[in-house]
Amino acid sequence: MKNLQIKTFAEYKKAYQKSTENPEAFWDEIASTFTWKKKWDKTLEWDFRKPEVKWFQGGKLNITENCLDRHLEEQGNKTAIIWEPNDPDEESRYISYRQLFVKVSRFANVLKNNGIKKGDKVCLYMPMIPELAIAMLACARIGAVHSIVFAGFSSSAIASRINDSGCKLLITANEVYRGSKRVNLKDICDEALENTPSIETVIVYRRTVEPTSMKEGRDKFWFDELQKVDKDCAAEEMDAEDMLFILYTSGSTGKPKGMVHTTGGYMVGTTYTFENVFQLEKNDVYWCTADIGWITGHSYIIYGPLAAGATTVMFEGIPSYPDYGRFWEICDKLNVTHFYTAPTAIRALAKQSLKFVEQHDLSSLKVLGSVGEPINEEAWHWYNDNIGKGNCPVVDTWWQTETGAIMISPVAGITPTRPTFATLPLPGVQPALMDENGKEITNLHEKAEGRLAIKFPWPSIARTIYGNHQRYKEVYFSAYENMYFTGDGSYRDATGNYRITGRVDDVVIVSGHNLGTATIENAIDEHQNVVECAVVGFPHDVKGNALYAYVILYDDVEPTEKLESEIKKLVSDTVGPIAKPDKIQFVSGLPKTRSGKIMRRILRKIASNDTDNLGDTSTLLNPEIIDEIMQEAKR
Ligand code: WT7
């Protein structure tokens, strides 16, 4: 581990201090531990007002040389990826660094053979199988930009993402196993492909033996394509600021934002944080349970761990199949040392009998991680006591798709932890807590609550929203002058430790999935009987938050249960099953301000059954609607 610099709390403090006093020198030193084809000329150029951030300008590299080639000599036979299938009776796959290198190079040639060149966009809609990792690294090898769409998203979600970035090629699998179910991904893609004029070729990996519909001239099987190419593929020379990938995340308006990550800074940021936060040692087995369709999977299943030369586990299945002990069975079987998951999974597993845990030997575990949403006290303790047996530091890692890498988190075994606190900023991260007047609360020795912003650029910050730099500026750089706004609220204690309290905008985190309420509202509005609707989040004991939809129907329409399920299905089909509202209330109106804005704050309170103090309602045009909504609220 070349970047494992922090080994004591004093070293953490020293690194942090250096990173704020001289950020360029700090990151220069870390960046020098990677393989570059040409060294950079300028470490950092930035202006949050434009906004513009450039790291390691003039530097030339290929991230796959850092994730693969450079490990071959010393540890070519080390396992890079352990793949654990959905069905425990199917065999695990162990792929060494050398094997992965060959597979990636070969598939990179498949992409080239299908006309893909540097800068072209490639959409991946795939299950959690090694071929997903191979395809993404193959894109990076030739400088193509991958845009991975989580394989639980609907056909229209795929189509809008493909069209937004103009993807030329789509890679998918015929089917995916999910617990006891089989889902036909290719059928979902075919539906999406009816409206995606930029796609020229589709490559289909056969995960199952079931017949697959293939369109002549457009669709090709993965294995057939492999036969046509050889295994050597030189890595394309990329500029540090060349685009590595686009990944869509929800926003406050209906349209998902294509966050753009570039090559050099992203690599440096993910690898440095991976090694230091988790404190990985040479023979450790690291498992992050996220899906690669999310940023956690990009940064901490693939790029960070592979650049660090670690062994990373990829799991195809779900925590409840064949039973609720599956995670622990895998930890036992693979001797997992580092386990990184989401609070929603912890809460779901904590609800089950402890026998699912006790049946398995968890003594290999050394470090536990949490990510995606605030972890509540109860879940934290359950995780710490029953999984870590009180011996494994819990790292509660706060970050975002936009930040690319972990920002605020304990360093495992080094930073004192405190339940529900992400604790301290990592070196290179300069948080600012902002009060309601938009002023920074600078006293670190007094507890305070506010909104979380970041004052200085870090290497892995997203550079723009694809095709919409103006929106990037508005969403992240307009709330506070010359600062990046996170969209999160935060509490800071008198020792400078941060607890993230949750989103302060119209994004709701459901089971760790970041959902924009506007997207869901747009879907519901499509129903022929719906006039208007508003969707808000409310606390849920397993999912963290669930969705509550207030729906206005046309006058002549009866509110029925059938209509409710139609609306749920509509959301599931257009956005994805994860976005299905838990509760739907039919209302005759929505509380609106004089300027016509829905007052979501009130709707959130009603949905959360927290109606003692609704706050200021004096700007409402129709205050009488509140009583009606409250009386009929679904509890
Ligand atoms: C939002 C970003 C970053 C990986 C997964 C989510 C919430 C994330 C934590 C944490 C409290 C957290 C924030 C953030 N969040 N980690 N440890 N404690 N909240 O990425 O989909 O971009 O969502 O997730 O609200 O803004 P994402």
TrEMBL record:
A single GO BP: acetyl-CoA biosynthetic process from acetate
Enzyme Commission number: 6.2.1.1
Keyword Nucleus appears in the UniProt entry: no
Pfam family of the protein (one): AMP-binding
Q: Does the keyword Plastid apply?
A: no
Q: Which domain of life is it from?
A: Bacteria
Kindly give the Gene3D superfamilies that the UniProt entry links to this protein.
3.30.300.30, N-terminal domain of ligase-like
**Boundaries of each Acetyl-coenzyme A synthetase N-terminal domain copy?**
12-67
A molecular function (GO) term: acetate-CoA ligase activity
Enumerate the PANTHER family for this protein.
ACETYL-COENZYME A SYNTHETASE (PTHR24095), ACETYL-COENZYME A SYNTHETASE 1 (PTHR24095:SF14)
The record's comment on protein family reads: Belongs to the ATP-dependent AMP-binding enzyme family.
Protein's name according to its UniProt entry: Acetate--CoA ligase
Which species is this UniProt entry from?
Salinimicrobium marinum
- Gene name of this polypeptide: acsA
